[in-house]
Structures are given as structure tokens and as C-alpha cells.
Amino acid sequence: MLMENMGLCLDDRPDEGVFRVHRRVFTDPEIFELEQKYIFERTWIFLTIESQLPNPGDFITTWIGRTPILVTRDAKGKLNAFSNVCRHKGSVVQRADKGNAKYHVCNYHGWAYDPTGKIVDVKEHKAGQYSPAFDAAEHNLEPLAKLESYNGIVFGSMSPNVPPLDEYLGEIRFFLDLVMEQGPKGMEFVPGRAAYTFQANWKMQMDNGLDSYHLGSTHASFADVIQRRRKGEGHQEARQYDWTERFRGTGGSFSFKHGHSAIWSRPNEPFKRPIFPSIEEVKKRVGTLKADWMLHGRNTIIFPNFQTADSTALLMRQFRPLSVNQTEMRVWCLAPIGEAREQRSWRLRQFEDFFNPSGFATPDDSAVYEDCHTGAAGSGFDYLDGYGRGMMVQEKGANDVAQSIGINPVTSIQGPFEQSSETWHHPPHREWRRMMEAGLAGKEPY
Amino acid sequence: MERQETALKSERQETALKSERQEIALKTGAAENVVIGAAEQAWLDQGVDLLKREGMYLDLRRWDDWLSLFHEECEFWAPMWRSEDEMNDDPHMELSHLYYGNRKGLADRIIRIRGGRSPATSPMPRTSHLVGNVVALDTPAENRLRLHSSWTTQVFFPRQKLQHAYFGISEHLLERVDGQWRIMKKRVALQNDYIPSMLDVYCI
């Protein structure tokens, strides 16, 4: 039924105050296949940040959906991105996560490519007695259709029919600036591979990255630990925030075009942030307004599978669907390049405490996603009611907070933090349906 | 083309050499010049016994007994891997799975385990620790032991009815304080760092 009418995936009737998502959106293997084709292979996907590849020859490998991707910096300093697949027999060419290479040599038959993707060696070419047709054809690594950066964040698209990256990101760029401009020499990923999986659909993470409603219940155990730490016990080095205070504060959200959302909360114990000792330098460089907003709590979703957060520690995360019920998470702790040791250590302890798969919060998130997936996979009622909070306080366009920071969102919300609106999940789901419907109708999404 | 091929050849050789050089930066490996006489063997046996108790207390959920094996000023450090071949070696500049500069952080883990309010921890996973291949890295002394070990922890998750084997190697620095052996430093290399949903102190 859903496959014939993608419209049924969402029960979206804004005038009647209804927004519900069909459970099968999370559990249907056919929908998963279509997502790969009509979403992941047709829009901008986060690849890396530029500072991961500072020098000629540097490379990283990553994924767009199910396609392995190689990103390189060539001898001229230009970034390139390719399908990381040998043109000869289809083997993955570069198998390392990250490194520096003059050539990317396939392990199977030794075909070699340079960092511009050009084939430089078909091994034993002369002895191979190839046809003129073979020699006339091009055998370079297949480049991504689009590759662009915004403020050091690199995105790629397998489809050429996407809007320019600036336009795709639109007004949420303000929030990406707040992430990327914290350090005077730029930002870097702190070394360390934080990769884990959960047995649930990727869209659980898409929703939860901006879900403040779950904090008090899913993370009750974390709250207990924090409570005790306030009495001087436990892991003091993590300098955790007082969540009770945070719940008493003010916050809000913005929804943007192309499926993006951002949520924010007023600065809560700003002196606990590792950039706080450098805040004067930050103010001088980016201005008082931006510096102040760097001390606000902020989470974003860049549709479909990239998020930033700066609530307990600054991070980027990407969640990659492996199958309808399995997702791979990569989480990066972001820090100013050249950060002083004391601040770096402080940042690390905050990050590890909350966001590691060995932390006090993330494993509980993964556990509830898994429970949700198990629940949603069954039969029974069709639509989930988890998208209704805050529907009565949404303002069209820019509220005064948006105006004060000079952005023009589609909708705005401001209110007590504990209001925990769920309207900020609406843009990704609406964009999801729009792209799926376009795909099924045989149309390009943009 | 020929020049290119030579360059490629040397690139391939370089890669091969590089991987030969790589060692797991845990500073483990049997130390040279370790002398083990009867007295040293007795101290070493005591250290091995402590390592076994560490696993046993976790398996039996005797959390206080487990915690008491650690000195109040202990360092507990499970660095993350930096790449496929290299581990992080500075807990203040690079990420760790777990890093505690004293025992108080480990006490937090027990609050979480006992509280029953963590969805990932209830129902409580069941574990079975095996520790072996214990090698003295320095000549055992009456009050000080530095030990390498390998370990595997089988974990059954009753919630999902799934199981996973976490495994790795560890280095312990043990000191005898007031007549009791205590863990002063524990460094853990988690070899399979592609983690299914969660990792906690009782998984390693």
C-alpha cells in the first residue's frame, strides 16, 4: 500500500494540527532500497572536512549510501572525489581509512590511479594486446558528479542534478559557521576512530539527534550520575553540565528548506565550554554575536544523514544505513586546530563521557532505537504519534531570535527548553517523502 | 610509462616496509632481561591471581570487590585506534574509549550498572571473562608488577538475545600498598573496535 502511494508514509495535515509518520517507513526493506536510489544517490552527502586532507596526496575514504568513496587532494592542492572502485574488476581501490599516496593501486590486478583519478598504469599493458576500442576508452576512477565545500565541510553528490551546495544548505549555514569558526586556525577531527552500529533503521538517529524530549527518560541513569557528581563524587574531569538547570532554560528551533533543522538553547554554564578560556579571541575574530551563539546549545540535522551537535561537546556525526535494520555510526570530536592541551583534555573528557559508545548517554540512545525498530516491525496501528509536541507554538518565517542572528528560516519556535517540540523532526520527513515521491514518479527531485 | 612503473614499484615497497615497522603502541611485548626465580614466580602468581579476580568479580557482579582492586589514584585507559594500524598514545590530546585519571570515574560506572535506569544496561548483559597469556614485562618485584595479558569477554545481551565477543590486550601496573596488590594503571587495547551499540567496563 505504501509502495503504491508514498503519500501515505506521512500523515501531514498542518492545518488540522496533524503530523504522523507511518511505522513501515522505518522497517520496510523495499523502502530501504528506494531510499538508496532516490535519496542517498540523488542529493548532497557529507564526506569529510578539508583539514583532514591538508597536503597533496592526502586521502580519506568514506561512503555515499552503499558506494565506497575516495576523496583526495591532488598535487595542485585541489580536492577530488571518486567512486573508490577499480574500473577493471570493480574491486575497492584504496582500502585505508586515511593516508597519503602518490598512487592508488588496486590490489587485484595492479591498475594504478593518481590523486586526480587518472589511470596511470594498466599493468603489463603492452603484453595485454588490447583492442583499439579499449585504448580509446577512458578508464579513470569515476568522479563524483558534484563535489563542493562549505566553510571547510566537504559534500559530494552522485547526481549532477542538485542545487549548488550553498543553496542546498541555505540558512542553516549560520549554524555550520558556529561549528567551523571556533578556532583561529580552523577546526580538526580529534584522532580516534569512534565507529559503532545499532540494529535499527537510520532514521531513528535522524529524529533523535534533535530530540530533547527523551533526555530525562532515556538518560535517567546519566542524570543519576550527574546528580552524584554535583556532590563531588565521580568523574569530575568531565565537567558535566547541570541538566536540571538546562531544563529550566529557554530554547527554540528553526526549520529550513531541503529538510534541515536546528535547535538551540540559551547558554547554560558557558564557563564549562572548552572554548570559554579563549572567548575573547573568538569575539575579536567572529564578533560578539557569533561568539555568544557558540556558547548556546545547538544541534542540527543536515538532511539526510549528517548532524552537528554542541550541547555537551562539539561533534559531527554521520549515520549510514547498512540495511533496513542496521546502521553504522561515525562520530567525530571536533576541536580547534592548535588547541591548548588543557582545553583539549577537558573537551575529550566531556565528549567521551556522553557521546562515546562507551559513554553514559549514547548506548542508551542506541538501545531505544533498537526497541523502536522491534516495535515498529510488528503489525497493528499504522502511524506514530511522536511528532506532535510544539505544534501550537510554531511561527511562520523568522521570529525575533532569527532576526537577531540574521537568518530566514521557514518556521521558528521559542519557548521553555522543556517544551521539547517535535516539530523540528518535520522537515527531514517531509523532504524524505518529497524525494521518494519524485523518484517513484520518474522525476528528478530538484 | 617505465619511469612511472619504477615509481609505482617503490611506492609498493614503501607501503610494505611501513607495515613491517608498525607495532601496537601499548608498550607491551615480553620485556628483555626479565629474571624469574622462585620469589619472582610467587609475586607473579599473585599478580595473575589479581587479573583473574578482576574478571571474576565482573562476571559475578561483585562490583565493590571489583572496584577495590583499583587504587584510588589509579589510571584506567582504553585508547581509541587512530587508524587501522596505530593506537592513540596521548589521552589528553586524543580520544579514548574510556579514560579515568582516578578511581572515581570507575565508581560512576557502578552507579549506572546498579541504578537499573539505563536502557542499554537493563536487563543487565551477562559476561564471561577469560584472561590469559600473562607475561611479566619487568622482573617481578616484591611490591611492583608490570604485566601483559590477552583477554576475551563474551557478552550475552538478554534484551536482543544477541552475543558478542569483545577482545583485546591489556597492560597492568600493580603495586602492593599496605600489604594488598592494587591496580595502579590499566591500559586496554580493544582489538575489535567496531562496537555493537555499547561498550562498558564489564565488556573489557
Structure commentary:
The complex is a heterodimer of chains A (446) and B (204). Chain A is an alpha+beta fold. Chain A has 15 helices and 23 strands. In chain A, the strands form 5 sheets. In chain A, strands 13, 14, 15, 16, 17, 18, 19, 20, 22 and 23 form a 10-stranded antiparallel beta sheet that branches. Chain A has a 4-stranded antiparallel beta sheet with strand order 6-5-4-7, with no helix packed on it. Chain A has a 3-stranded antiparallel beta sheet with strand order 1-2-21. Chain B has a single domain, classed as Roll (Nuclear Transport Factor 2, Chain: A). Chain B has helices spanning 2-21, 38-59, 63-68, 104-115, and strands at 70-79, 96-100, 126-136, 144-157, 162-177, 180-190, 194-196. The termini of chain B are far apart. The longest helix of chain B has 22 residues, at 38-59. Chain B is 29% helix and 34% strand. Chain B is built from 4 helices and 7 strands; from the N terminus they run αααββαβββββ. At the A-B interface, strand 14, helix 8, helix 12 and helix 13 of A face helix 1, strand 2, helix 4 and strand 7 of B. Strand 14 of chain A pairs parallel with strand 7 (194-196) of chain B.
Summary of the model, kept short:
Chain A is an alpha+beta fold and 446 residues long. Helices cover 28% and strands 26% of the residues of chain A. Chain B has helices spanning 2-21, 38-59, 63-68, 104-115; strands at 70-79, 96-100, 126-136, 144-157, 162-177, 180-190, 194-196.
Keywords:
heterodimer, A: 446 residues, alpha+beta, Rieske Iron-sulfur Protein, Naphthalene 1,2-dioxygenase Alpha Subunit, Chain A, domain 1, 2 domains, ten-stranded antiparallel β-sheet, four-stranded antiparallel β-sheet, B: 204 residues, Nuclear Transport Factor 2, Chain: A, globular
Question: How are the secondary structure elements laid out?
Answer:
The complex is a heterodimer of chains A (446) and B (204).
Chain A: E1 10-13, E2 18-22, H1 24-27, H2 29-40, E3 45-49, E4 58-64, E5 67-73, E6 79-83, E7 98-100, E8 104-105, E9 112-113, E10 119-121, H3 132-136, E11 146-150, E12 153-157, H4 165-169, H5 173-180, E13 187-189, E14 194-198, H6 203-208, H7 215-218, H8 220-229, H9 243-248, E15 250-255, E16 261-265, H10 279-286, H11 288-294, E17 297-302, E18 306-310, E19 314-323, E20 326-336, H12 341-355, H13 362-376, E21 383-384, E22 395-396, H14 400-405, E23 411-416, H15 426-440
Antiparallel strand pairs in A: 1-2, 2-21, 3-12, 4-5, 4-7, 5-6, 8-9, 9-10, 11-12, 13-20, 14-20, 15-16, 15-23, 16-17, 17-18, 18-19, 19-20, 22-23
Chain B: H1 2-21, H2 38-59, H3 63-68, E1 70-79, E2 96-100, H4 104-115, E3 126-136, E4 144-157, E5 162-177, E6 180-190, E7 194-196
Parallel strand pairs in B: 1-6
Antiparallel strand pairs in B: 1-2, 3-4, 4-5, 5-6
